[in-house]
From TrEMBL, chain A:
InterPro entries: Acetolactate_synth_lsu, AHAS_TPP, DHS-like_NAD/FAD-binding_dom, THDP-binding, Thiamin_PyroP_enz_cen_dom, Thiamin_PyroP_enz_TPP-bd_dom, TPP-bd_CS, TPP_enz. It comes from Pseudovibrio japonicus. The keyword NAD does not apply. Pathway: Amino-acid biosynthesis; L-valine biosynthesis; L-valine from pyruvate: step 1/4; Amino-acid biosynthesis; L-isoleucine biosynthesis; L-isoleucine from 2-oxobutanoate: step 1/4. Binds 1 thiamine pyrophosphate per subunit. Keywords: Amino-acid biosynthesis, Branched-chain amino acid biosynthesis, Magnesium, Metal-binding, Thiamine pyrophosphate, Transferase. Residues 399-546 form the Thiamine pyrophosphate enzyme TPP-binding domain. This is Acetolactate synthase. It catalyses: 2 pyruvate + H(+) = (2S)-2-acetolactate + CO2. PROSITE patterns: TPP_ENZYMES. Its cofactor is thiamine diphosphate; Mg(2+). Transmembrane segments: none annotated.
Automatic annotation (TrEMBL), chain B:
Belongs to the acetolactate synthase small subunit family. It catalyses: 2 pyruvate + H(+) = (2S)-2-acetolactate + CO2. Gene3D superfamilies: 3.30.70.260, ACT-like. Chain A, domain 2. This is Acetolactate synthase small subunit. NCBIfam families: acolac_sm (TIGR00119), PRK11895.1 (NF008864). It comes from Pseudovibrio japonicus.
Length: 590, 197
């Protein structure tokens, strides 16, 4: 296909040619030509957000819940800079996203023109790649390349910055010229080295205390990867834990599931990591929230690391057997080799499983129940009961205690149903992400588990939800505190709660109503079930103001500077234990 | 099998390491497009890597590719990170660690040369001494008046350092250096050089 068209038309054509159905955006001077094309077609639906950051997180939620790239469209200057947080968020969590930004006309670039900023300069470190398009004839190639780069290899966000004159200019659109799979310099390695994979399977067949440590890479690799992972777990009978980003790849109801690991992971997961003799890390990156104290991190294990990004290997922790490749490709080979070699799990595995059951019986997620006040954990357990068994539930979160509790108490059965800001920890992520997921899955139940502080960071997107007939439900665990900040102040700063209490919170019920949504408030544990059902049944977006125990803290916890086997468990976390949990060296850590 | 950095309490202390620092020369072939150098330099500053020397120029005009040569100092693990991080940049075609490649084939170092222009001002004996030294160092005079010389010198970095050091008391005015250009010894091109040990 070869046709003459304007740059703005090319944008729309390239979006269509890449299968895009939804764009999240906000208009402005430098993208008016593209918006003029948008209104004259109906293949692509535009979702008008209330703040560009919201467009970015919505695109992320869309991407995470579909596996396709999310698309955002914003104007130059502040439009672009408002995207920076969302781009960085997508970068750290490897979320495919194509962001198109308007730019001042080419002849004004560099003149400090109105709403001008150096978008490619500002977004260079927070994108996988970015482009400033100076010639309309380069635009089709760049747009197709942008989708390819965002979605292939280790996915990530890309920015295409298009000056206004390029949007008006006429050039030749050619789809044939864009064949990115033979890109001249960017060719991600999908297939793992067979010798290394064979060696890995060999190690697995000899392991006495093995554990799978999986991450967001499994989800990013597509549904087949999760399927193969489940198959491999069934074949080997090895226990499995996952990072925050990887939840759902293996079902929480699965026999071998240990729960999440890391700073707020379960006792059994962290102890298994510490005591294992073989760690099989798949699509995870030894983040500091995972490893805890590095010199005491899993001291006796041989480590296998499967990752599509060679720079993830040996970055933090030295591994014995690296395998560079796409998770699904490598898992497929592992499963095949394991089957062909008719390996059986070793009898010693029974002992290991016995040990794990013992750790499990420590019941590390227990908490003291109350009849008068709602414990935040209890609220989430009731929510979990209400959504159990439903396949069309997408959970997003903001960032803080509620996020960790959601990861601990909600069971995720399948990949792409859990949308959370893991690497970057962006408060304000959850509501727009839930909107993005709702756009992709109109009939589904999209719930944003939020805190009272986080939700206010992008609350304006309630208006977006109402305008577009979307009904995400925001489940606010309202304790009037920035709970995680307060928890750290208790741990590190002598319980001096510096500015972590919010004195003048809005009335969330009235706020929901002001936006045209529905507000629900619950203060007693006994009212929870009915209110949750009312929330689920509501055809409108909901702000659910769940008043929870104000001073509850999130446990288990590996205090900074401590090892996996030095967790602070809820029943041991007295005020004194909390105040002394972190030593001087640990205090400087984040 | 243990965590790599034995004295690290957490990832935040990775920089405090007992591993010895090494200086390596890396070569990268990149698309000659706007911003590519900013990507490379931004990677180094953003991740806290060192740049001892960096030189870049288009090497194949028809293919629009440039060659970047970077001399950097870090622990072996950091240098391996640098190589992979560079390779992750979309316009980067190939990255090779020439120092590792040299060691892998039992050579001390890759071929490394630098060019410097050095201006010296002086009279009488100092002037004569400068000229005499330039001959010893095989530098050439490319500009002169009765008050000054500009020398051009090519060689390994330490040879140029030495020449500049010697010229300091003889009226050194200023120096312009290109940074290191490097190739692997032997018949193999960058693509075929092995830099994994």
């Amino acid at each position: 296909m070869q046709r003459e068209m304007t740059g703005a038309e090319m944008v729309l054509q390239a979006l269509k040619d890449n299968g895009v159905e939804h764009v999240f955006g906000y208009p402005g001077g430098a993208v008016l030509p593209i918006y003029d094309e948008l209104i004259q077609q109906d293949t692509i639906q535009h979702i008008l957000v209330r703040h560009e950051q919201g467009a970015g997180h919505a695109a992320e939620g869309y991407a995470r819940s579909t596996g396709k790239a999310g698309v955002a469209l914003v104007t130059s200057g502040p439009g672009a800079t408002n995207m920076v947080t969302a781009l960085t968020d997508a970068m750290l969590d490897s979320i495919p996203m194509v962001c198109i930004t308007g730019q001042v006309p080419t002849n004004l670039v560099g003149s400090d023109a109105f709403q001008e900023c150096d978008t490619v300069g500002i977004t260079r470190p927070c994108t996988k790649h970015n482009w400033l398009v100076k010639d309309v004839n380069d635009l089709p190639r760049i747009l197709h390349e942008a989708f390819y780069v965002a979605q292939s290899g280790r996915p990530g966000p890309v920015v295409v910055d298009i000056p206004k004159d390029v949007q008006f200019a006429t050039g030749t659109y050619e789809i044939a010229q864009a064949n990115p799979s033979n890109h001249k310099s960017y060719r991600p390695q999908l297939k793992g080295d067979m010798t290394a994979i064979r060696a890995a399977v060999e190690l697995m067949s000899k392991a006495k205390r093995p554990v799978f440590y999986t991450g967001g890479g499994v989800v990013n690799s597509g549904p087949a990867a999760s399927q193969l992972l489940r198959e491999l777990i069934d074949l080997t009978g090895f226990p499995i834990t996952s990072t925050l980003m990887g939840l759902g790849a293996y079902p929480a109801s699965g026999d071998q599931w240990l729960g999440m690991l890391g700073m707020h992971g379960t006792y059994e997961a962290n102890m298994a990591m510490h005591d294992c003799d073989l760690m099989i890390c798949i699509g995870a990156r030894f983040d500091d929230r995972i490893t805890g104290r590095l010199d005491a991190f899993s001291p006796h294990s041989t480590k296998i690391h499967v990752d599509i990004d060679p720079s993830s290997i040996n970055k933090i922790v030295h591994v014995d057997l690296p395998i560079v490749g796409d998770v699904a490709h490598v898992l497929e080979d592992m499963v095949r080799i394991w089957r062909a070699s008719s390996f059986r799990a070793r009898p010693e595995l029974k002992e290991w499983q016995g040990q794990i059951s013992q750790w499990r019986s420590r019941n590390c997620l227990s908490y003291r129940q109350s009849d008068d006040v709602i414990m935040p954990q209890y609220a989430l357990q009731r929510l979990n009961e209400a959504i159990k068994g439903r396949k069309d539930v997408y959970i997003s979160t903001e960032v803080g205690q509620h996020q960790m509790w959601a990861a601990q108490y909600l069971g995720f059965e399948s990949p792409n149903h859990w949308l959370t800001s893991g690497g970057f920890g962006t408060m304000g992520y959850g509501l727009p992400a839930a909107i993005g997921a709702q756009v992709a899955h109109p009939g589904a139940l999209c719930i944003n588990v939020a805190g009272d502080a986080s939700i206010l960071m992008n609350i304006q997107e309630m208006s977006t939800a109402v305008q577009h007939g979307l009904a995400p439900k925001t489940f606010i665990l309202n304790n009037s505190y920035m709970g995680m900040v307060r928890q750290w102040q208790q741990l590190l700063h002598g319980n001096r709660l510096s500015h972590s209490y919010t004195d003048s919170l809005p009335d969330f019920v009235k706020l929901a109503e002001a936006y045209g949504g529905k507000g629900i408030r619950v203060t007693k544990p006994g009212e929870l079930d009915d209110a949750i059902q009312e929330m689920i049944d509501s055809p409108e977006p909901v702000l659910f103001d769940c008043r929870v125990a104000q001073l509850a803290n999130c446990f288990p916890m590996i205090p900074s500077g401590k090892a996996h086997n030095e967790m602070l468990l809820p029943d041991e976390a007295t005020d004194e234990a909390v105040a002394n949990a972190i030593d001087t060296a640990g205090k400087s850590l984040v | 099998m243990n965590a790599h950095k034995s004295d690290a309490l957490s990832a935040y202390f990775l920089a405090e390491t007992s591993d010895v620092l090494e200086t390596h020369t890396l070569s990268a072939i990149v698309d000659n497009e706007p911003g590519v150098l900013a990507r490379v330099i931004g990677l180094f500053s953003g991740r806290g890597y060192n740049i001892d020397s960096l030189s870049v120029s288009e090497t194949e005009h028809e293919k629009h590719v440039s060659r970047i040569t970077i001399v950097t100092t870090g622990t072996p693990q950091i240098i391996e990170q640098i190589r992979h991080q560079l390779d992750r940049l979309v316009p980067v075609h190939i990255v090779r660690d020439l120092t590792v490649a040299a060691k892998a084939s039992n050579q001390e170092k890759p071929l490394e040369r630098e060019l410097a222009l050095i201006k010296v001002r002086g009279e009488g004996n100092k002037r004569l001494e400068a000229l005499r030294l330039s001959e010893a160092f095989k530098a050439t005079v490319i500009d002169a008046t009765i008050d000054h010389f500009v020398f051009e010198i090519t060689g390994r970095t330490n040879k140029i350092d030495q020449f500049i050091e010697i010229l300091k008391p003889l009226g050194l005015v200023e120096v312009s250096r290109t940074g290191v250009a490097a190739l692997a010894r032997g018949e193999l091109g960058l693509k075929d050089v092995h830099d994994e040990i």
